[in-house]
Structures are given as C-alpha cells and as structure tokens.
Give the backbone structure.
Amino acid sequence: MSGDFTIVIKNRVRFGDLKKESGEVDHDSDALLLGQTGLFPFTCPGVDSTRQAVLQFAYRGSTQSLKFPVPQPDGGLEGISPEHPVKINNVVLDGGIPAGPFRDRKSLWSTRLLLIPPHVLRPDNRLLIETTAPGGDGNLDNFTLDNLVVFFKTRQFIRIPIDVSGQLEENPG
C-alpha cells in the first residue's frame, strides 16, 4: 500500500495570550504568535480517505490545571483537565494537546501522534488548533507547536493489461 505525507507547519507557532503563569518561562519568543486559535489549510493529494491517517507534531509549554488522574469508585477519573482541541475538517481528534513535560521550570519538547479516523481527510483540508484556559481564570495556556505532519495512505489504481499483440503491424521498410 502506498503512502505519502504533507507538512502542515514547518516553523514554530505559539498559542495563548502571553500572560505568564507563576514560574512560566518564554522560550519561543521568536515564534509567530497566533493567539487562541490557528487555522491551517493543507492538501493530501491522492488521499485514500477510507483509511486511517496520523497527525504528528512537536509541542512544549502546555499545562493542565489538575493533577494526575485518580480513579473514582464510580469508574470515572478525577484530575483530568481537557486537552487543547485539535480538529481536522471540523472533526475533533481524540487526544488533543496534553500537558507538556517540564524540568527545572523549563518546558521540554515532546512528540504527539493523533489518529485521524477514516473519512476525515480529503484532498483539501483544514486543521484547527485551539488553546484553552486550564485554570478557569480566563488566562489562556501558552504553548508552542512545531513540525506538524500528516501521514496518509494514497489511492491505488488498478492497471488492467491490454492485449495489443494482434493489433501491431510490421514496419514494411
């Protein structure tokens, strides 16, 4: 089966409002600031939309206001903040952008892979990414994305052999 890829974002972009949380350090001030949402058109030439695809990206600086998930007696989990939503063609992808790792108050790069369900990709697509206010105070989470790539399967064309042996003429000269 053939596959292909499309680079959606090849330069760093930032989301958020730049209001720093306590202890937050800005490592990506040179990256383009998009604010709360970013809309990125991209193409997938020859995409086989009946197949699953993968969105891969690097991110850093995102946070979640609640701590590690704690199982509850009712079967639910306490301590999960919603991840920042990622949509392709108005379909929300499971997973989103989670909290990123930190070491000594410095945000570290992490890689995320999200599955794109069948029948979502088309030849022309729109990727929408949003930041949210994880603390409930209206202060948007600041984070950076880089190297967004979509890996997808391409349609296969069936080649039918044509018998032309009886149609060839000899060159008389």
User: Anything to note?
Assistant: The chain has no helices and 14 strands. The chain has a mean pLDDT of 83. The CA atoms of residues 12 and 30 lie 8 Å apart. The longest strand covers residues 143-153.
